[in-house]
Protein backbone atom coordinates (compact mmCIF):
# COMPACT_ATOMS: atom_id res chain seq x y z
CA UNK A 1 0.00 0.00 0.00
CA UNK A 2 2.90 2.39 0.61
CA UNK A 3 3.64 2.68 -3.13
CA UNK A 4 -0.01 2.99 -4.10
CA UNK A 5 -1.12 6.33 -5.55
CA UNK A 6 -4.76 5.57 -6.35
CA UNK A 7 -7.22 2.80 -5.53
CA UNK A 8 -10.90 2.51 -6.35
CA UNK A 9 -12.24 -0.34 -4.24
CA UNK A 10 -15.70 -1.78 -5.03
CA UNK A 11 -16.94 1.67 -5.99
CA UNK A 12 -20.56 2.06 -7.03
CA UNK A 13 -21.49 5.59 -8.05
CA UNK A 14 -24.84 6.94 -9.10
CA UNK A 15 -26.10 10.37 -10.06
CA UNK A 16 -29.74 11.39 -10.56
CA UNK A 17 -30.77 7.80 -9.81
CA UNK A 18 -28.60 6.45 -12.66
CA UNK A 19 -25.75 4.06 -11.79
CA UNK A 20 -22.64 5.05 -13.78
CA UNK A 21 -19.99 2.95 -11.98
CA UNK A 22 -20.67 -0.47 -10.48
CA UNK A 23 -18.16 -2.52 -8.45
CA UNK A 24 -15.41 -0.41 -10.02
CA UNK A 25 -11.91 -1.67 -9.15
CA UNK A 26 -8.71 0.12 -10.18
CA UNK A 27 -5.28 0.65 -8.64
CA UNK A 28 -2.33 2.73 -9.83
CA UNK A 29 1.11 2.50 -8.28
CA UNK A 30 3.71 5.21 -7.63
CA UNK A 31 5.53 6.06 -10.84
CA UNK A 32 3.32 3.76 -12.93
CA UNK A 33 2.03 4.63 -16.38
CA UNK A 34 -1.35 2.93 -16.40
CA UNK A 35 -3.48 2.59 -19.51
CA UNK A 36 -7.27 2.75 -19.71
CA UNK A 37 -9.08 1.40 -22.78
CA UNK A 38 -12.77 2.45 -22.80
CA UNK A 39 -14.75 0.05 -24.97
CA UNK A 40 -17.66 2.44 -24.62
CA UNK A 41 -18.02 5.86 -23.04
CA UNK A 42 -20.54 4.84 -20.37
CA UNK A 43 -19.34 6.05 -16.96
CA UNK A 44 -16.05 7.50 -18.22
CA UNK A 45 -16.94 11.15 -17.65
CA UNK A 46 -18.33 10.32 -14.21
CA UNK A 47 -15.17 8.41 -13.31
CA UNK A 48 -12.97 11.38 -14.25
CA UNK A 49 -15.15 13.79 -12.32
CA UNK A 50 -15.11 11.49 -9.31
CA UNK A 51 -11.30 11.36 -9.48
CA UNK A 52 -11.10 15.09 -8.92
CA UNK A 53 -14.13 15.99 -6.83
CA UNK A 54 -14.85 13.03 -4.52
CA UNK A 55 -18.61 13.21 -4.97
CA UNK A 56 -20.66 11.03 -2.59
CA UNK A 57 -20.52 7.31 -3.32
CA UNK A 58 -23.34 4.80 -3.19
CA UNK A 59 -20.81 2.22 -2.01
CA UNK A 60 -17.06 1.67 -1.97
CA UNK A 61 -13.83 3.42 -1.09
CA UNK A 62 -11.32 5.68 -2.84
CA UNK A 63 -7.72 6.02 -1.68
CA UNK A 64 -5.34 8.64 -3.02
CA UNK A 65 -1.68 9.10 -2.16
CA UNK A 66 -1.93 6.64 0.72
CA UNK A 67 -5.04 8.15 2.35
CA UNK A 68 -8.71 7.31 2.23
CA UNK A 69 -10.29 10.34 0.55
CA UNK A 70 -13.81 9.09 -0.16
CA UNK A 71 -16.20 6.37 0.96
CA UNK A 72 -19.91 5.71 1.10
CA UNK A 73 -19.78 6.47 4.85
CA UNK A 74 -17.89 9.79 4.74
CA UNK A 75 -19.66 13.12 5.10
CA UNK A 76 -16.70 15.48 4.65
CA UNK A 77 -14.79 15.38 1.40
CA UNK A 78 -12.24 17.63 -0.31
CA UNK A 79 -11.10 17.72 -3.96
CA UNK A 80 -8.05 15.66 -4.94
CA UNK A 81 -4.91 17.18 -6.42
CA UNK A 82 -5.26 15.29 -9.69
CA UNK A 83 -4.89 16.85 -13.13
CA UNK A 84 -6.88 15.70 -16.18
CA UNK A 85 -5.43 16.83 -19.51
CA UNK A 86 -7.34 16.46 -22.78
CA UNK A 87 -8.28 18.32 -25.94
CA UNK A 88 -10.07 21.03 -23.95
CA UNK A 89 -7.12 22.53 -22.12
CA UNK A 90 -7.58 24.35 -18.83
CA UNK A 91 -5.05 27.10 -19.50
CA UNK A 92 -6.15 30.73 -19.40
CA UNK A 93 -5.82 32.33 -22.83
CA UNK A 94 -4.32 35.80 -22.91
CA UNK A 95 -1.98 34.94 -20.04
CA UNK A 96 1.66 33.90 -20.22
CA UNK A 97 3.09 30.45 -19.63
CA UNK A 98 4.62 31.48 -16.32
CA UNK A 99 1.35 33.05 -15.12
CA UNK A 100 -0.59 29.87 -15.90
CA UNK A 101 1.94 27.67 -14.11
CA UNK A 102 2.54 29.75 -10.99
CA UNK A 103 0.17 32.69 -10.53
CA UNK A 104 -3.16 31.15 -11.57
CA UNK A 105 -2.80 27.86 -9.72
CA UNK A 106 -4.46 27.21 -6.38
CA UNK A 107 -2.30 28.09 -3.39
CA UNK A 108 -0.27 30.91 -4.97
CA UNK A 109 -0.06 33.45 -2.13
CA UNK A 110 2.14 36.28 -3.40
CA UNK A 111 0.57 39.72 -3.75
CA UNK A 112 3.52 41.22 -5.66
CA UNK A 113 4.23 39.22 -8.82
CA UNK A 114 7.83 39.30 -10.06
CA UNK A 115 7.63 37.79 -13.53
CA UNK A 116 11.38 37.69 -14.06
CA UNK A 117 11.85 35.75 -10.81
CA UNK A 118 9.09 33.28 -11.72
CA UNK A 119 10.56 32.81 -15.20
CA UNK A 120 13.92 31.99 -13.64
CA UNK A 121 12.20 29.42 -11.41
CA UNK A 122 10.52 27.80 -14.43
CA UNK A 123 13.55 27.48 -16.71
CA UNK A 124 15.19 24.59 -14.75
CA UNK A 125 11.97 22.57 -15.14
CA UNK A 126 12.03 23.17 -18.91
CA UNK A 127 15.71 22.27 -19.12
CA UNK A 128 15.03 19.14 -17.08
CA UNK A 129 12.74 17.79 -19.81
CA UNK A 130 14.78 19.22 -22.69
CA UNK A 131 12.15 21.68 -23.91
CA UNK A 132 12.66 25.28 -25.01
CA UNK A 133 9.43 27.19 -24.35
CA UNK A 134 9.56 30.92 -23.72
CA UNK A 135 8.10 31.39 -20.20
CA UNK A 136 6.80 34.83 -21.20
CA UNK A 137 4.92 33.70 -24.33
CA UNK A 138 1.11 33.71 -24.39
CA UNK A 139 -0.43 30.25 -24.26
CA UNK A 140 -2.51 30.87 -27.41
CA UNK A 141 0.80 31.18 -29.32
CA UNK A 142 1.83 27.64 -28.34
CA UNK A 143 1.25 24.45 -30.28
CA UNK A 144 -1.08 21.79 -28.83
CA UNK A 145 1.96 19.79 -27.75
CA UNK A 146 3.45 22.76 -25.92
CA UNK A 147 0.14 23.50 -24.16
CA UNK A 148 0.03 19.92 -22.87
CA UNK A 149 3.60 20.32 -21.60
CA UNK A 150 2.59 23.49 -19.76
CA UNK A 151 -0.32 21.66 -18.12
CA UNK A 152 1.98 18.80 -17.09
CA UNK A 153 4.52 21.24 -15.64
CA UNK A 154 1.79 23.06 -13.73
CA UNK A 155 0.65 19.75 -12.23
CA UNK A 156 4.20 18.72 -11.31
CA UNK A 157 5.04 22.06 -9.71
CA UNK A 158 1.72 22.02 -7.81
CA UNK A 159 2.70 18.66 -6.30
CA UNK A 160 0.07 16.49 -8.02
CA UNK A 161 0.94 12.80 -7.78
CA UNK A 162 -1.40 11.60 -10.52
CA UNK A 163 -1.85 13.08 -14.01
CA UNK A 164 -4.54 11.81 -16.39
CA UNK A 165 -3.81 12.10 -20.12
CA UNK A 166 -6.91 11.67 -22.26
CA UNK A 167 -6.85 10.87 -26.00
CA UNK A 168 -3.84 13.11 -26.67
CA UNK A 169 -3.16 11.39 -29.98
CA UNK A 170 -6.32 12.94 -31.44
CA UNK A 171 -4.87 16.46 -31.40
CA UNK A 172 -1.09 16.13 -31.08
CA UNK A 173 0.98 15.23 -34.14
CA UNK A 174 2.51 11.75 -34.17
CA UNK A 175 6.09 13.02 -34.28
CA UNK A 176 5.41 15.06 -31.14
CA UNK A 177 3.74 12.16 -29.31
CA UNK A 178 7.12 10.42 -29.11
CA UNK A 179 8.57 13.47 -27.39
CA UNK A 180 5.61 13.55 -25.02
CA UNK A 181 6.14 9.89 -24.13
CA UNK A 182 9.70 10.73 -23.07
CA UNK A 183 8.43 13.51 -20.79
CA UNK A 184 5.90 11.13 -19.25
CA UNK A 185 8.57 8.46 -18.69
CA UNK A 186 10.87 11.09 -17.19
CA UNK A 187 8.35 12.12 -14.55
CA UNK A 188 7.22 8.55 -13.89
CA UNK A 189 10.79 7.82 -12.82
CA UNK A 190 10.39 10.68 -10.35
CA UNK A 191 7.41 8.90 -8.78
CA UNK A 192 4.54 10.67 -10.54
CA UNK A 193 1.84 8.30 -11.77
CA UNK A 194 -0.01 8.67 -15.06
CA UNK A 195 -3.34 7.32 -16.29
CA UNK A 196 -3.23 7.24 -20.10
CA UNK A 197 -6.70 6.97 -21.65
CA UNK A 198 -6.84 5.91 -25.29
CA UNK A 199 -8.87 3.67 -27.55
CA UNK A 200 -5.80 2.87 -29.65
CA UNK A 201 -3.97 -0.25 -28.57
CA UNK A 202 -0.72 0.82 -30.23
CA UNK A 203 -0.58 3.97 -28.09
CA UNK A 204 -1.33 2.05 -24.89
CA UNK A 205 1.15 -0.77 -25.59
CA UNK A 206 4.00 1.61 -26.47
CA UNK A 207 3.80 3.52 -23.19
CA UNK A 208 1.96 1.66 -20.43
CA UNK A 209 3.05 -1.13 -18.07
CA UNK A 210 -0.57 -2.25 -17.55
CA UNK A 211 -3.93 -1.41 -19.05
CA UNK A 212 -7.47 -1.60 -17.69
CA UNK A 213 -10.32 -2.43 -20.05
CA UNK A 214 -13.50 -0.48 -19.16
CA UNK A 215 -17.02 -1.11 -20.39
CA UNK A 216 -20.46 -0.17 -19.08
CA UNK A 217 -19.08 1.49 -15.95
CA UNK A 218 -16.97 -1.51 -14.94
CA UNK A 219 -13.34 -2.56 -15.18
CA UNK A 220 -13.49 -5.84 -17.10
CA UNK A 221 -9.84 -6.78 -16.90
CA UNK A 222 -6.33 -5.55 -16.07
CA UNK A 223 -3.77 -6.58 -18.69
CA UNK A 224 0.01 -6.56 -18.26
CA UNK A 225 2.25 -5.02 -20.91
CA UNK A 226 3.49 -8.36 -22.26
CA UNK A 227 -0.10 -9.35 -23.12
CA UNK A 228 -1.32 -6.04 -24.54
CA UNK A 229 -0.52 -7.04 -28.10
CA UNK A 230 -1.97 -10.54 -27.73
CA UNK A 231 -5.49 -11.85 -27.44
CA UNK A 232 -6.98 -8.63 -26.04
CA UNK A 233 -7.44 -7.16 -29.52
CA UNK A 234 -9.53 -10.13 -30.60
CA UNK A 235 -11.53 -9.83 -27.40
CA UNK A 236 -12.32 -6.20 -28.10
CA UNK A 237 -13.69 -6.99 -31.53
CA UNK A 238 -15.62 -9.99 -30.26
CA UNK A 239 -17.43 -7.90 -27.62
CA UNK A 240 -18.45 -5.28 -30.17
CA UNK A 241 -18.84 -7.41 -33.30
CA UNK A 242 -22.32 -5.99 -33.86
CA UNK A 243 -20.70 -2.69 -34.89
CA UNK A 244 -17.94 -4.14 -37.04
CA UNK A 245 -17.83 -3.61 -40.79
CA UNK A 246 -17.12 -6.27 -43.38
CA UNK A 247 -13.46 -5.62 -44.05
CA UNK A 248 -10.33 -3.84 -42.90
CA UNK A 249 -9.04 -1.56 -45.59
CA UNK A 250 -9.69 -1.35 -49.30
CA UNK A 251 -6.62 -2.86 -50.98
CA UNK A 252 -6.35 -2.99 -54.75
CA UNK A 253 -9.46 -0.90 -55.37
CA UNK A 254 -9.55 0.88 -58.72
CA UNK A 255 -10.47 4.56 -58.50
CA UNK A 256 -12.28 6.65 -61.06
CA UNK A 257 -10.24 9.17 -63.02
CA UNK A 258 -12.97 11.78 -62.56
CA UNK A 259 -11.81 14.69 -60.38
CA UNK A 260 -14.34 15.83 -57.80
CA UNK A 261 -12.41 18.42 -55.79
CA UNK A 262 -9.36 20.52 -56.52
CA UNK A 263 -7.59 22.68 -53.93
CA UNK A 264 -5.17 25.13 -55.55
CA UNK A 265 -2.24 26.59 -53.62
CA UNK A 266 -4.10 27.11 -50.36
CA UNK A 267 -1.90 29.21 -48.08
CA UNK A 268 -1.95 28.14 -44.44
CA UNK A 269 -0.31 29.07 -41.14
CA UNK A 270 3.46 28.76 -40.62
CA UNK A 271 4.16 28.95 -44.36
CA UNK A 272 2.40 25.67 -45.19
CA UNK A 273 0.59 25.28 -48.53
CA UNK A 274 -1.78 22.71 -49.96
CA UNK A 275 -2.48 21.74 -53.57
CA UNK A 276 -4.37 18.50 -54.16
CA UNK A 277 -7.07 16.88 -56.29
CA UNK A 278 -9.60 14.30 -55.09
CA UNK A 279 -11.08 11.66 -57.38
CA UNK A 280 -14.58 10.21 -57.33
CA UNK A 281 -14.98 7.57 -54.62
CA UNK A 282 -11.56 8.27 -53.09
CA UNK A 283 -10.84 8.37 -49.36
CA UNK A 284 -8.16 11.00 -48.78
CA UNK A 285 -6.64 11.71 -45.37
CA UNK A 286 -5.04 15.13 -44.92
CA UNK A 287 -2.85 15.23 -41.85
CA UNK A 288 -1.35 18.57 -40.72
CA UNK A 289 1.78 18.04 -38.63
CA UNK A 290 1.15 21.13 -36.51
CA UNK A 291 -2.12 22.01 -34.80
CA UNK A 292 -1.85 25.64 -35.96
CA UNK A 293 -1.79 24.44 -39.58
CA UNK A 294 -4.73 22.16 -38.74
CA UNK A 295 -6.76 25.05 -37.26
CA UNK A 296 -6.07 27.22 -40.31
CA UNK A 297 -7.07 24.45 -42.72
CA UNK A 298 -10.31 23.81 -40.84
CA UNK A 299 -11.12 27.53 -40.98
CA UNK A 300 -10.47 27.53 -44.71
CA UNK A 301 -12.57 24.43 -45.37
CA UNK A 302 -15.52 25.23 -43.13
CA UNK A 303 -15.36 29.03 -43.33
CA UNK A 304 -17.47 31.19 -45.60
CA UNK A 305 -14.77 31.91 -48.19
CA UNK A 306 -15.65 34.52 -50.80
CA UNK A 307 -15.37 33.25 -54.38
CA UNK A 308 -12.67 35.81 -55.21
CA UNK A 309 -10.50 34.40 -52.43
CA UNK A 310 -11.44 30.78 -52.99
CA UNK A 311 -8.95 28.07 -53.80
CA UNK A 312 -11.59 25.35 -54.09
CA UNK A 313 -13.01 23.90 -57.31
CA UNK A 314 -15.77 21.30 -57.72
CA UNK A 315 -15.64 19.68 -61.17
CA UNK A 316 -13.69 22.72 -62.39
CA UNK A 317 -16.08 25.34 -60.97
CA UNK A 318 -14.80 27.78 -58.36
CA UNK A 319 -16.95 27.35 -55.28
CA UNK A 320 -17.60 28.21 -51.67
CA UNK A 321 -17.60 24.80 -50.01
CA UNK A 322 -20.02 25.58 -47.19
CA UNK A 323 -22.65 26.80 -49.72
CA UNK A 324 -22.28 24.03 -52.29
CA UNK A 325 -24.78 21.16 -51.96
CA UNK A 326 -22.42 18.95 -53.94
CA UNK A 327 -20.38 18.96 -50.74
CA UNK A 328 -21.39 17.67 -47.29
CA UNK A 329 -19.49 19.04 -44.29
CA UNK A 330 -19.01 17.09 -41.07
CA UNK A 331 -17.57 19.08 -38.20
CA UNK A 332 -16.01 17.67 -35.04
CA UNK A 333 -18.69 16.02 -32.89
CA UNK A 334 -21.44 16.61 -35.49
CA UNK A 335 -24.09 15.17 -33.15
CA UNK A 336 -23.57 18.27 -30.97
CA UNK A 337 -23.61 20.98 -33.64
CA UNK A 338 -25.36 19.68 -36.77
CA UNK A 339 -28.84 18.79 -35.49
CA UNK A 340 -31.78 21.07 -34.73
CA UNK A 341 -33.64 20.20 -31.55
CA UNK A 342 -36.66 22.29 -32.49
CA UNK A 343 -37.20 20.22 -35.66
CA UNK A 344 -38.55 16.67 -35.85
CA UNK A 345 -36.40 13.67 -36.70
CA UNK A 346 -37.76 13.58 -40.25
CA UNK A 347 -37.24 17.31 -40.79
CA UNK A 348 -33.61 16.96 -39.66
CA UNK A 349 -33.20 14.07 -42.06
CA UNK A 350 -34.60 16.06 -45.02
CA UNK A 351 -32.76 19.27 -44.18
CA UNK A 352 -30.33 19.20 -47.13
CA UNK A 353 -32.45 17.67 -49.92
CA UNK A 354 -34.43 20.72 -51.06
CA UNK A 355 -31.94 21.23 -53.93
CA UNK A 356 -32.92 17.78 -55.24
CA UNK A 357 -36.65 17.89 -54.39
CA UNK A 358 -37.75 21.57 -54.40
CA UNK A 359 -41.23 20.78 -53.10
CA UNK A 360 -40.08 18.40 -50.36
CA UNK A 361 -41.59 20.48 -47.53
CA UNK A 362 -45.03 20.59 -49.16
CA UNK A 363 -45.40 16.97 -50.22
CA UNK A 364 -46.19 14.46 -47.49
CA UNK A 365 -45.65 11.62 -49.93
CA UNK A 366 -41.96 12.44 -50.17
CA UNK A 367 -41.58 12.20 -46.40
CA UNK A 368 -43.38 8.84 -46.34
CA UNK A 369 -41.17 7.54 -49.12
CA UNK A 370 -37.99 8.61 -47.30
CA UNK A 371 -39.19 7.00 -44.10
CA UNK A 372 -39.85 3.71 -45.87
CA UNK A 373 -36.51 3.84 -47.67
CA UNK A 374 -34.33 4.50 -44.60
CA UNK A 375 -36.23 2.74 -41.82
CA UNK A 376 -34.21 -0.41 -42.47
CA UNK A 377 -30.98 1.49 -41.91
CA UNK A 378 -32.05 3.83 -39.12
CA UNK A 379 -34.80 1.83 -37.42
CA UNK A 380 -38.53 2.57 -37.47
CA UNK A 381 -38.69 3.64 -33.81
CA UNK A 382 -36.40 6.68 -34.17
CA UNK A 383 -38.89 8.56 -36.39
CA UNK A 384 -41.17 9.04 -33.39
CA UNK A 385 -38.45 10.44 -31.13
CA UNK A 386 -37.44 14.04 -30.55
CA UNK A 387 -33.78 14.94 -31.12
CA UNK A 388 -33.24 15.22 -27.36
CA UNK A 389 -34.38 11.63 -26.88
CA UNK A 390 -31.90 10.14 -29.36
CA UNK A 391 -28.80 8.29 -28.24
CA UNK A 392 -25.41 9.34 -29.61
CA UNK A 393 -25.48 6.36 -31.98
CA UNK A 394 -28.92 7.34 -33.29
CA UNK A 395 -27.80 10.96 -33.80
CA UNK A 396 -24.73 9.86 -35.78
CA UNK A 397 -26.83 7.53 -37.94
CA UNK A 398 -29.30 10.37 -38.54
CA UNK A 399 -26.51 12.65 -39.77
CA UNK A 400 -25.12 10.01 -42.13
CA UNK A 401 -28.67 9.24 -43.32
CA UNK A 402 -29.02 12.95 -44.16
CA UNK A 403 -25.84 12.73 -46.24
CA UNK A 404 -27.20 9.72 -48.12
CA UNK A 405 -30.32 11.71 -49.04
CA UNK A 406 -28.28 14.75 -50.02
CA UNK A 407 -26.22 12.58 -52.42
CA UNK A 408 -23.12 14.81 -52.44
CA UNK A 409 -20.09 14.16 -54.59
CA UNK A 410 -17.83 14.77 -51.63
CA UNK A 411 -17.85 14.65 -47.81
CA UNK A 412 -15.36 16.84 -45.94
CA UNK A 413 -14.97 15.82 -42.31
CA UNK A 414 -12.86 17.13 -39.42
CA UNK A 415 -11.54 14.62 -36.87
CA UNK A 416 -14.52 12.24 -37.18
CA UNK A 417 -13.07 9.75 -34.66
CA UNK A 418 -11.94 12.28 -32.06
CA UNK A 419 -12.80 11.38 -28.44
CA UNK A 420 -15.01 8.48 -29.56
CA UNK A 421 -14.99 5.17 -27.73
CA UNK A 422 -14.15 1.86 -29.34
CA UNK A 423 -17.67 0.87 -30.36
CA UNK A 424 -18.48 4.30 -31.82
CA UNK A 425 -15.31 4.28 -33.93
CA UNK A 426 -16.33 0.94 -35.41
CA UNK A 427 -19.76 2.35 -36.22
CA UNK A 428 -18.24 5.44 -37.89
CA UNK A 429 -15.97 3.26 -40.04
CA UNK A 430 -18.97 1.23 -41.14
CA UNK A 431 -20.93 4.37 -42.03
CA UNK A 432 -18.00 5.84 -43.97
CA UNK A 433 -17.59 2.57 -45.87
CA UNK A 434 -21.27 2.87 -46.78
CA UNK A 435 -20.66 6.31 -48.32
CA UNK A 436 -17.62 5.07 -50.23
CA UNK A 437 -19.62 2.14 -51.60
CA UNK A 438 -22.01 4.67 -53.16
CA UNK A 439 -19.16 6.45 -54.95
CA UNK A 440 -19.03 9.43 -52.55
CA UNK A 441 -15.52 10.79 -51.97
CA UNK A 442 -14.35 11.47 -48.41
CA UNK A 443 -11.66 13.91 -47.29
CA UNK A 444 -10.75 13.39 -43.65
CA UNK A 445 -8.75 16.20 -42.03
CA UNK A 446 -7.19 14.80 -38.88
CA UNK A 447 -4.16 14.87 -36.61
CA UNK A 448 -4.32 11.12 -35.99
CA UNK A 449 -4.52 8.60 -38.83
CA UNK A 450 -4.83 5.40 -36.78
CA UNK A 451 -8.57 4.96 -37.37
CA UNK A 452 -8.76 6.24 -40.93
CA UNK A 453 -5.63 4.57 -42.34
CA UNK A 454 -7.39 1.23 -43.11
CA UNK A 455 -9.94 3.11 -45.23
CA UNK A 456 -7.54 5.56 -46.89
CA UNK A 457 -6.46 5.49 -50.51
CA UNK A 458 -3.96 8.28 -49.85
CA UNK A 459 -2.55 10.09 -46.82
CA UNK A 460 -1.09 13.57 -47.32
CA UNK A 461 0.93 15.24 -44.59
CA UNK A 462 1.26 19.04 -44.40
CA UNK A 463 4.39 20.30 -42.68
CA UNK A 464 4.99 23.80 -41.36
CA UNK A 465 7.70 25.69 -43.23
CA UNK A 466 8.51 27.97 -40.29
CA UNK A 467 7.91 27.47 -36.59
Based on the model shown, name its key terms.
alpha/beta; Rossmann fold; 13 helices; 2 domains; single chain; 467 residues; 31% helix; five-stranded parallel β-sheet
Strand content: 15-25%
Helical segment tally?
A: 13
Instruction: Output the CATH class name of the largest domain.
Output: Alpha Beta
Helix content: 25-40%
Give structural notes.
With 467 residues, the protein is an alpha/beta fold. The chain is 31% helix and 24% strand. Helix 2 (97-103) packs parallel to helix 4 (144-157), helix 11 (364-378) packs across helix 12 and helix 12 (392-406) runs parallel beside helix 13. Mean pLDDT is 86; it is low at 108-112 and 237-249.
Short overview:
This protein is an alpha/beta fold and 467 residues long. The protein has helices spanning 44-53, 97-103, 115-128, 144-157, 174-189, 201-207, 232-239, 291-302, 334-337, 345-349, 364-378, 392-406, 422-437, and strands at residues 4-15, 18-29, 33-38, 59-64, 67-71, 82-85, 162-166, 193-197, 210-215, 218-224, 259-267, 273-279, 283-288, 312-314, 317-318, 327-330, 410-414, 441-445, 458-462.
